[in-house]
Amino acid sequence: MLHRAPPGLKLGSALVIVIAVVLMPRRPDVLYLLPAALLLGLWPLARMPLGFAVRRMLVAEFFILGMALLTLLAPEALPVFLAALIKSNLSIFAMLLLIWTTPFQSILQQLRRLGLPAVMVTTLALMYRYLPVLAEESSRMQRARASRTFAPGRRLAWHSLTTIIGQLFVRAADRAERIYLAMCARGWK
Known about the structure:
The chain has helices spanning 7-22, 33-46, 50-70, 77-101, 104-113, 118-148, 154-185. It is mainly α. The model has no long low-confidence stretch (mean pLDDT 85).
């Protein structure tokens, strides 16, 4: 049912929910129940599988916790930490509902209509296009490392992982440069 709603309405609603959540108090409050109830009410309408939501939220949770831990440096840290945790999770869940119910191309079209600079929309489109390529490159590098590593050890695994991340960054930058030069050769500005 939510899939049939206009993309502009879904994007606008998601942005309103995120902005409302961000503007809520910097301490846990009953006000957080309003967007939580709204999002949980929209979830069955979106028909988003629980496994999809849980996997995506777990990936995001790593970054959310990292960001929320930084708030522990502030005075009165615990309420700010809890509020940051709640706000981030609600915002991510709102975006998950949006991406589950709206094709990415429709989101990009709406962003163009809203007047987002063309270079930002193009960057988002290219990022979306090349994330699977980057994931495949990472998988290929991990297989190569696994086929060459015989000694199981946590220290060696961490060293290999950091090496893979560094090489992945270098390869991604090199690929991005080649893609940019190819686009310029075809008249892109």
